[in-house]
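re: ur question from earlier - yeah i can do the single chain one, its not a big deal. heres the input i used so u can compare w yours
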Amino acid sequence: MTFGISFAPLVPDYVVWAAAAVAGVIALLLIVARMRGALIRTLALALLVLALANPSFTREDREPLSSVAVMVVDKSASQGFGERAAQAEAARAALTERLARITGLELRTVEAGQADGESDGTRLFGALGAALADVPPERVAGAIMLTDGRVHDVPADTGALGFSAPVHALVTGHPGERDRRVVLVSAPRFGIVGQQQTITFRVEDTGAPRGPAEVRISRDGETIERRSVLSGDQVRVQVPIPHPGQNIVEIEASPILDELTPLNNRAVVSIDGVRDKLRVLLVSGEPHAGERTWRNLLKSDANVDLVHFTILRPPEKQDGTPINELSLIAFPTRELFQQKINEFQLIIFDRYARQGVLPIIYFDNIARYVRDGGAVLVAAGPDYASQTSLWRTPLESILPAEPNGRVTEQAFHAALTDLGKRHPVTRTLEGAGAEPPAWSRWFRLVDARSIEGMTVMKGPDEKPLLVLAREGEGRVALLLSDHIWLWARGYEGGGPHIDLLRRLSHWLMKQPDLEEEALRLFARGREIVVQRQTMAETAAPVTLTAPSGATRTLELDPADAGVWRKSIEANELGLWRASDGKLTAMVNVGPPNPREFSEVTSTTDVMAPLTDATGGSARRLLARAGAEADVPRVVAVRSSETFKGDSWIGLKMRDASVVRGVGVLPMFAGLLGLLLLVGSLALTWAREGR
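and the output i got, formated as tokens:
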């Protein structure tokens, strides 16, 4: 219970102060003039001014509040190294028991630093702030953190804490810990496909002298180089970028003796491969209604550099037209099909037949170009069934279907085969799910017998319509109809010609998204999605490896024709790996090289500036490896600037309280005020009458 005096003036404040000034002047004159009753008159004036101020006696019933201390227990991945977790739990139990003996202290314990798939690094002060969110600063006694010292959200100054109380750090681990890590100095984010990119790194050893390290550089899980380096030296390595999309490069150093963990012996660089320009050679033969379909599609793609030739005038044609009146240019066959053929990613023959323009030897070059990694697409018409067919050239060795010399002339709906329903080129074509498919009819099909590859689209009587094949390192596609232009022109509602032709050309140019057999990992927020694309009826189990090295086996669920999928929670940051024994996939969740694993040796240096500024301390639980944990005593301190000693740490005990009741007694209200004022006037008159 506390007592006090409060004022509630009956008039504005300036009137009270003016009255006090006038009363003071009058009282001074009375005293200087030594008039009789000067003191009594002064008392009367003071009581009048005091009455205007309306003072009241107050009484407050207060209930004391406990001081609040927070113990933050680091549960980050680095606390799992060595005996750190056991040390922290032992200290936690001892401190909880000792703090419970302090009268008027409330202990709050919070665990923080667990990997959540979103935050990078160990964040303990965010958890501390959340634990004290409902506690006024004047009740905070301090904080004790059980951690390995690698905290990544330490405030720059004590003002950011939001309270004035000591912070103590009790550090697990022991002095002299050894560890090796790979540090990236510079790494590109993008690279041109087919070119090399430079990565600069160094190997750092902590707690160990400089020494040699064996380094393995791999890309997408495949080793591309090994070399021996000296720790501390900067090393530059050239990495080729073979494909578009993510190219994940790993730099892994050999371990050292007695190091804490090999997890940070590896650094990861994700380089997005970007194609410079896709060079496509389009050779059109006999003019027909759909001749511009391929040209319009390829010219609309800004990433495609198109070279287009139309064979309008075969060499044997002799019609007497003067040479100086011909506006056509000669077909540069030698330049295109011998000197520069390897500069093209795709060669398209659109209704092309042998007309003596290309010598037979050049078809040999094209076949060799495909086997070495190139791509050829044949969009066939009746020419493919004729005596001048491309089949009757050295291209026969790479073409996936043999014509029988007949052409079917009837209306039909192009349909997907069972393989086509699973193949990424045709699987999700709009309208394919209807029966018949919801697109316009075609009216011509070259009869052929599929001899290799996959038939993904069919015509009437199960005849092959679109056949895809692999030949050596390259790819071949054969479209056995020249009526796809009906879809482009919107006949009977048209069809998905853009999607089909674009996917077809990109599959030929080895776009990773269109691979028939692929294992993929996707990071979507706090989820990792494992997806298997396959032409088989089932998908094998997948082994998923977390950044910490923990593994689990996943049984994938069917999601769509040819697609199997499974989602799990991404509870760790870093590089995740998936493998089904044949294929491997990798994906980064968060940054490629999490700070949690960049530096893992325990230290007091990170926390010491803040703990010292608050009057606390950062000290180790173990003085040396193999020693017993030394948990300091906890002392309740009422008033001090320092809250630490050789064997103790202190908490700042507070005198906070909450008001439960208030009593107010006005001094000049009612009979009491009247008696004071009348009494003072009566004394004045009585003194004057003597």
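The mean pLDDT is 85. not sure if urs matches, ping me
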